[in-house]
Amino acid sequence: MPQRKPADAVIEEMLHIASPGVRGSEVHQVASLIADLGMRRDPTGADVDELRRLLGARGKTKAAWGERGRRFGANASRFLTGLSDGFAEARRRSTSRGEARRLGTEWRRHQEDYATSLVSVHDMRLGLLREAINNPDLAATLDVYESEISPTKQRQFLFVEAVHRTYLLEWRVGAMTMQELYGHLRILFRNPVFREYWEATRSHRASLDQSSAEARIGRIADDLLREMDEADIDEWWIVGEPPTTDEGL
In the predicted model, is pLDDT for residue 184 greater than 90? Predict the structure, then answer.
């Protein structure tokens, strides 16, 4: 790869080609000024005036540059003005990128805090379910089913609820995709106890905020269960069409 020339050398070479009659020292001075303004700092109106002075207002230099020099001076003025605007835009974009990074960091921290809170609440709820499974007196306080069930069946329902909520939590915190959750639901619906639990808690899900994650998953599971019941194939593991994207938290 050829060695890259400094900016002022490139500009000086271009000026020599454009105006071969100008003295080398003058071309070098102008090229250095343009390179300095363009590459190292933000041009100002005074810088533009100085460049115009060098290009067309200095005794012998004025005659040497002639009309070509004046045209170049006008172009250089527009060039430097454009650079000034460009630098201002670059600073604005840099500030915007910094703000975007800050907001992104805050959003990720919020999401992490939210996930931590979900896990904490889930652990507390599992603890309560565990107590109810092991203590019939406590299990009686959670007997909210519309039909009478045996103590054994109630313990099974409480355990199934714990499993289902754990899957739901994994999806909500991003540890499981929607497609994976859909597959787990398909497996659970192969179990008659889970089917009984799902039917017994249908009215419970109807009382939820229908925009909540639990309610949305409930509707997806209802559709899956219906398709599994209606499917006329033995390959149960391909029944249903999982959502193509996660629905979010």
Answer: yes
